[in-house]
Amino acid sequence: MPSNPFRFDAAAMCNVADQMGVAADGLTIPSGLPIDPAATFRSTTAAADGTAQAQQRITAFATSLTTVADQIRTATAQFTDTEAVNTARLEVS
Amino acid sequence: MTTVTEASVWSSDSLHRGADGWERAAFDLQIQVDGVVRGVDATVDLWTGTAADAMRDDARRVTAAGTQTAESLLTAAVLARQGADRIDAAATIVRTLVDDARALGCTVADDGTVTAPAAVPQTILDGVGGDAALGRWYIDAWSAQMTNDIASALQTLGDTDADVAAQINEAFDAPATKTAPAGVGQWTVPPADVVAGWATLSQDRIAAQIAGLTLAQRRQLVTEFPREVGNTDGVPWIPTFGMRRA
């Protein structure tokens, strides 16, 4: 029988998930650029488009981070159940 | 075709404001990414097994995407500032030529066409010894030359604007297809020499120098020269965040 490699520190992992949540909530989203309607400079338009793109990417990053944090919380809830822990042990043994 | 009106209203403020905002967002994002990476790395002592490995893989993919976004923002900020200066210079040439033409009583159309005044300006007459016919010929020829010069300057302004736009777009392109523009991310002098030069530079010069560095270059400075970065006036607060907080 192989040694049991499974280990789970529920309280510590909750802290990790909480840190991820704090990081997701604390991100700075760059604000949009005002474009002078009298000017049709492509560089300014590109900058405004880029800002919008960055806003989407940072928001997506925050969402992904929140998802990982939720996965950790879900695992925490599952692994604190004795039966689930035993199942997990069997899976990884 | 770029017009005289556009050249006259051009302001680099929006590009500089954008660059400032992108830079702040990039450093803030990277600080959060670094914190998450440290937290995830530490979980190897807290959680083991296949589910744990899968979680760490997910988290690393997420943080890698965050780092790529931060790099895109910082590269775009460098290019936007450089581009703003280039467009400023090109627009200034147009404005100067237009001002010169108007100073002699010429009218300048929005497409840059210069029309000589009906009466030959006195300064021209004085220059040709009062010869009205010669003065007429001179102002007409000068106006035609100015038309060419302004058209050329407008073309350069438009080309510069298009080039800056392309560079900004490229910086924000998907990281997998992005290639760093020439000059961005490369040390023109060794980092040690950069830091050594701070002793003789003004705060503004140091701040401008830092503004031209990529995130990776700034982090390299923080890692290799923490004391100098943390204690030099002019170095923006963001890259020294970790140093001064410690």
Number of strands of chain A: 1
Low-confidence stretches of chain B: 176-182, 237-246
Beta-strand residue fraction of chain B: under 5%
Largest sheet of chain A: none
String of helices and strands of chain A: EHHH
Helix content of chain B: over 70%
Number of helices of chain A: 3
The largest interface is: A-B, 52 and 54 residues
Helix content of chain A: 55-70%
Helix-strand category of chain B = mainly alpha
Describe the structure in your own words.
The complex is a heterodimer of chains A (93) and B (246). With 93 residues, chain A is mainly α. Chain A contains 3 helices and 1 strand, in the order βααα. In chain A, helix 1 (10-25) packs antiparallel against helix 2. The model of chain A has no long low-confidence stretch (mean pLDDT 77). In chain B, 71% of the residues lie in helices and 2% in strands. Chain B has 10 helices and 3 strands, in the order H-H-E-H-E-E-H-H-H-H-H-H-H. Chains A and B meet through strand 1, helix 1, helix 2 and helix 3 of A and helix 1, helix 2, strand 1, helix 3 and helix 5 of B.
Write the layout of secondary structure elements.
The complex is a heterodimer of chains A (93) and B (246).
Chain A: E1 7-8, H1 10-25, H2 42-79, H3 82-92
Chain B: H1 4-9, H2 13-42, E1 47-48, H3 50-103, E2 107-108, E3 114-115, H4 122-127, H5 132-172, H6 191-197, H7 203-211, H8 215-224, H9 226-231, H10 241-245
Antiparallel strand pairs in B: 2-3
Short description:
The complex is a heterodimer of chains A (93) and B (246). Chain A is built from 3 helices and 1 strand, in the order E-H-H-H.
